[in-house]
Amino acid sequence: MVAAVVSIVVLALGCSAAAWMYLLKRNFELMAAEELAAGAEAVRLKIQERVGRAELTTRFIARDIAASPELASDADALAMYLKGLKAAGFDADLLSALDMDGATTAHAAPDWAGDMRGEPAFLDPLFSGAAASGRSAGVAVCLPEVVCVEAIEAFYLNGTKAGYVRVGHVLDDAFAGEIKLATGTDYLLLRRGRGAAGSISFGALTPEESAALAGAVSSPGAQAASARLSLGGKPYFIKTIELKDAAGRVAAQQAVARGASDIQRAEREALAALAAISVLGLAFALALGLLTSKRIFGPLGELMKTVREVSEGRLDARVPDGGRDDEIGELSGAFNDMTRSLLDRAGELERRQAQLIQSGKLAAIGELAAGVAHEIGNPLSAISGYAQMIQENAHSREEHLRFASEIEREADFIVRIISDLLEFSRPSGDELKPADIRELCDAAIRTVSAHKAFTRVEIISKFAPDIPLVECHPKEIQQVFMNLIMNAAQAMNGGGRIRVEGALAPDRVLISVRDEGPGVPAHIKDKIFDPFFTTKPPGVGTGLGLSIAYRIVEKHGGRLELESSASGTVFSFSLPLKGAGC
Ligand SMILES: Nc1ncnc2c1ncn2[C@@H]1O[C@H](COP(=O)(O)OP(=O)(O)OP(=O)(O)O)[C@@H](O)[C@H]1O
Ligand SMILES: [Mg+2]
After folding, report:
1. Helices in 153-226 by DSSP H: which ranges?
2. Mutate to test the pocket of ligand 1, among 420, 525, 536, 562 (most ligand atoms within 8 A of CB)
C-alpha cells in the first residue's frame, strides 16, 4: 500500500515536471521568436526612414537645380554642386544626376555608383516610375558590392524636364550596427545568396554555415518561421525578411539573428532550477506520503493484528489507544467496545454452560439413583417378605428352607447389581498390556456359553490371521465381548447363530458381533446405552450391560455402534492397536 502511494506521488511529480520543462522550453522559443519579430520590424522601419530621407533629399536638390539654370545645363557644374553637397556632409551615400535616358551625367558618390544602366533590371522600374511621375522611391541593388535604398526626382529647366537627381543610402555594416544597437538582434543582408552586409562577419562563417544561411533565407516559407543555425560556430535563431525592388521583385534577402546560446543558457538554468524544485518537491512528497501512510496504515496494521488475535479466540485483545480523534480512532474504539461485549457474553455463556453441566450431572445422578432404587427395590421387597414369613413360624421346615434359598437368590441379584454398578463407576484396576484379541473373545465365549440362553445357539468366531496384539485392559475387553454375546443370545430366544468377526485396519482392529434376533426396535435405539435401561423381565437383566460396554470401548479410544434390522443386530467397535493411553 505504501509503495502504491509513493509510486503515484512520483508519477504525478514526474508528469508535472515534464510538462513544466516542455512549457519552459516552448516559452524560451517563443521569446526568441518575439525578439526576432521585433528585429524584423526595426529593419522595416529603418529602411522606410532611409527611403523617406532619400526622397526629401532628391526633392531639395531638384528644386535647387531648377532655381539655378546653369547647373541644369552644365554637367561639370552639376558634378561640382553635388560634390560640394557631399563635402558639406549631406546625408547620402549615393548622389548623382541622370539625363533623360537614365544615364549618369554627374555624381558625387564613390566610383562604384557608376552608370545606373549597369543594373537595369533593378533600376528600370525605379527609373520608369520617376520618368512617368517625376519622382520615385524604392529599393534597388545598384552594383554587385552593395545594396541600397534610393529615390529619384526629375528636375526642370525653364519648365521643361531636363534630367533626374538620384539619392541612395547603402544598407551596409553600419546599418547592421544600428539595427543591432536598437534591437539587440544581429542583421545580415544577402544578395543572390552572398553576404552583402551584416553585424556578423560573413568572413567568419564556414562554407557550410554560409551555405546553410543561404539555404535558410531563400527556402520557401522562410519568412514565416524562424530557424536554428550555426554562425561562426555559435548557435543562432534567425528570421528572414525579403527586400523588394520598386516592381515588387525580391532584390535581396535579409535576416535578423538572435544568439541562441544566451537563450539556451537561460533555458538550462531554468531547467536546472526546475529539476532542483522537482527533486525537493519529490523528497517532500515522499516524506509526507510516508508519514501519512505510517499514520494511516500503522494503526490499521494494529487493528488487523488485533482482529486476528480475536478470531483466534483471544477476546481480551485490544487495539492500543493512540489517542486519535479521527475515523481510525473511532474504528479502534468501536472495535474495542465490540470485543469487550464479546468477552462479557463469552463469560456469561461459560457460566450458563457450567450451570447446565451441573444440572445435567444432578439429573444423571438422580436417574442413576432412581434406577438403583428400582432395581434393588424389588429383590429387597422379596427378601423382606420371605423374612416375615420365616418369622411368623407358621410354615414347615421345607418351606423355611425354600424361603431362605429365595432370600439368597434375591440377595445374589442385589450383589450383582452392586458389582455392575461398581464396574460402571470406577476403573477395574485391570492393567494396560498387549493382549491377543482372539483369546479374549474365546475366554468370553467359554464363560457365557454355560448359560441356559446358549443351549440352541451356535457361536462362530472368525478373526483375520494378521491381527497383532492390542494394547488394552484385557479383562475389560473380555467383559465387552461377554455383554455383547450374552445380549445376542438373549435376543435370539429360540436359538440361532452368533458371528463374532475381527479385521485389521491400518492402525486398529475392527470387531463386530452379529446375531439373527428380531433387532432393536427403532423407538428404543437411543436408550439402550443408558444405564438401567432394559426390556428384560426383573431378575433377568439390570440394563447395565451395554452402558458398561460403551464406557469401556470409549475409554480405549473406540466407539460402540449399533446397526439393526428385523433380521438381526450388529454391534461393532474398533480398538487402536497402540491403545489410547487409558
Ligand atoms: N442383540 C440385541 N438384540 C436386540 N435387543 C438388544 C440386543 N442387545 C441389547 N438389546 C436391548 O438393549 C437393552 C439393554 O441391554 P443391556 O445389555 O444394557 O441390558 P440388559 O441386557 O437388558 O441387562 P443386563 O445386560 O444388565 O443383564 C436390552 O434390554 C435389549 O432390549
Ligand atoms: Mg445385557
Report:
1. 173-183, 207-218
2. 536
